[in-house]
């Protein structure tokens, strides 16, 4: 279990992020068209998993916008924006914002995702949502970078994440 904070108050997660060098855990998440997606759909691609509590918060929305902007500059790389928001909310947000360089995915059918990646919030007012984290895997889906953002209301370290893609 890891501990993060929400406005300074401790919140426990379900575990630890995947270890550097390990295989990315399996997942089956829901796209905005209600189809399912998993690692096989992104075979041979580098992936940035931008994991966050909800699009309905300013910090989460900012991370999706920033990764959408940055993603276009990296070859063979896809950004997966993952939260417990319903696929309809993901679709509406991306359409309203004009975001087309990221893939929005919902965990609403996959409660195990948060546990497999160690990001399910187990305590606190956001219990049941996901902690803010970034996991980057190479084209063989080996983990090359992770960040569990220690304060949920803060943005991830974009520079460190983008450096891992260079």
Helix residue percentage: 10-25%
Count of DSSP strands: 9
Strand arrangement, largest sheet? Answer: 7-6-5-8-9
Q: Quickly give the structural class.
A: alpha/beta
Termini separation: 31 Å
Helix-strand topology string: EEEEEHEHEHEEH
Largest sheet features: 5 strands, mixed
Low-confidence stretches: none
Shape: globular
Helical segment tally? 4
Radius of gyration: 14 Å
Mean pLDDT: 91
Strand content: 15-25%
Would you give an account of this structure?
- The chain is an alpha/beta fold and 166 residues long.
- The chain has 4 helices and 9 strands, in the order E-E-E-E-E-H-E-H-E-H-E-E-H.
- It has helices at 58-71, 87-97, 112-116, 158-165, and strands at 3-6, 9-12, 29-30, 36-37, 46-51, 77-83, 102-106, 133-137, 143-148.
- It starts with a strand and ends with a helix.
- 37% of the residues are buried.
Main attributes?
single chain; 166 residues; alpha/beta; 5-stranded mixed beta sheet; two-stranded antiparallel ribbon; 4 helices; 9 strands; 25% strand; globular
Q: Gist?
A:
The chain is of the alpha/beta class and 166 residues long. It contains 4 helices and 9 strands, in the order E-E-E-E-E-H-E-H-E-H-E-E-H.
SSE map:
Blueprint: E1 3-6, E2 9-12, E3 29-30, E4 36-37, E5 46-51, H1 58-71, E6 77-83, H2 87-97, E7 102-106, H3 112-116, E8 133-137, E9 143-148, H4 158-165
Parallel strand pairs: 5-6, 6-7
Antiparallel strand pairs: 1-2, 3-4, 5-8, 8-9
